[in-house]
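Take the subject:
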Amino acid sequence: MSKMTIEEKIGQLNLSGAGNLTPGQVINSDVAKSVCRGQVGAILSLRGLDVIKELQDVAVKNTRLGIPLLFGLDVIHGYETTFPIPLAMSCSWDLEGIKNVARISAIEASCEGIGWTFSPMVDICHDARWGRIAEGAGEDPYLGSAIATAMVQGYQENMSSNTDIMACIKHFALYGAVEAGRDYNTVDMSRYRMYNEYFPPYKAAVEAGAGSVMTSFNTVNGIPSTANKWLLTDVLRNQWHFNGFAVTDATAISELRQHGLGDLQQVSAKALKAGVDMDMGSGGFIGTLKKSL
């Protein structure tokens, strides 16, 4: 850390897309040029061992400090092997089987250089109109907590093997409680109900050792989750002692502007101070934090 410039530190907070890369063309791509400038810490949704290795070589061999990239992907219910959707798996109550699904997924994904999965989705949902309900475990906090624990353990084990990949708890918080099941909508809820019905699976995943958490798009009692210090710092870190990192959902920082929280520079600073550690796709951290500092 003492060797890093401000620009390099901010670059590590930037999760970037890579586009459609083909082997042999990586070194001349726009994302490779950004990596060479120290402006990328992690890569989103890139598949293929050859292109991942080529881009990793760019980071390790062609940057000042040689910091490897972290490659993340939505490995939701299998990587090459396709398993039932999470909602269907939850109906089995077979926790060992669900853990094995995550383990097999981790082994297959890690073989192609993926080190981070955006799973498990542990959002409790009581409204079947919500479009993401199929990706979670349904409405029961006990079952949801048990499945969250099993999946984190399956993906990560003890993070000592090349086949272990980092889990990401999503979406923090209350994403499945949006009014009328409308994605990104408002959540207006008492803290009593939060802690008893909706928070348990998130907390269970934290206690299982999940390395990362993803912020949700919705507001929680008037404040968007991505800029919500009570959620990301008071609850997640101070109450639950989470020591991993918080990443936004796609372009969530730039979308804070639609909530009226300011321009891109202002909302980027608000997100950082609330507890966000990595910006997915908004370009807010990489584009404005040095000026804000």
In short: Residues 98 and 151 are 7 Å apart (CA to CA). The two ends are 17 Å apart (CA to CA). The first helix runs from residue 6 to 11.
